[in-house]
Amino acid sequence: MASSRLIRIFIAASYLVVALTFASAAPAQDLKAPLPVDSSVRTGTLPNGLKFFIRRNPRPADRVLLRLAVQAGSVDEADDQRGLAHMLEHMAFNGTSRFKPGELVNYLQSIGARFGPHVNAYTSYDETVYMLDVPTDRPNALQRGMDALSDFAGGMTLDPAEVEKERGVVIEEWRGRLGAATRVRDKQVPVLFYKSRYAERNPIGKPEILRNAPTSRLRDFYNTWYRPERMAIIIVGDVKVDTPQVGSNIIEAAAIGASEGMKLAINVVAMLIAFHCMLACVSMAPLGRPVVPEV
Questions:
Q1: Domain map of the chain by residue range?
Q2: Of 77, 89, 127, 162, which is the active-site residue?
Q3: DSSP string, 193-244
Q4: For an engineered disulfide with 295, which of 105, 117, 194, 203 has Cβ 3.0 to 4.6 Å away?
């Protein structure tokens, strides 16, 4: 028994010596340095401040995944806008510069995409992300997908009649969350985020504001926070990111105004490259903001 105990002590001491040796040999880390980006991701920032991320992935074939990440969420809402960041996300699919109400979803369904698994969006405290998965073996499908991202960024029409129609949809989403889990959450959040804005900005919002907020306040949020320096476009597919062709094929596609005096240049990858895709997403939440559930 004594010999077994001595052996265990010896083994433990050996592990400790090895660990201390590696710890002393390891270089000191700069905890303030930004996290490195995977070398397989082509990334950059355009003159207008918009960021882009492109990654090659050959499977599944004939598919491309597109994302528009906006650094705007419920913590950016004014007191009379609580819930409007989420409602704005809904309105992206209800009329834009290029797509009449319902037209975008109908088009995407016509090329095999389904609303939910292939066409979706979410709003969180810090961010709003729009997600489109489109086939590349359909003529112009990729171009139309990029057109949609461009419209989400700066071309939503926000027609008052369409806003009125969508109020009921968002209210039902709020109503559907009423239950034990929400009651527990409502007790936890004020404690977890004590005296912070997060404690007061549930992304689903306030029902009285969702029912009564004027369209102008929805447009105010859009004009204030949807700006190129707060956005990133993510494209994942079979793109040769290590060739000069990629750099030359990131071209300015449109300059559209979400409001008077605001010009937003949205850039796309030229249609000459065949894309395929897998999941990719980017969090635009600034340092210091906690990761919290989305709507």
A1: 2-269
A2: 89
A3: TTTSGGGG--TT--HHHHHH--HHHHHHHHHHH--GGGEEEEEEES--TTSH
A4: 203
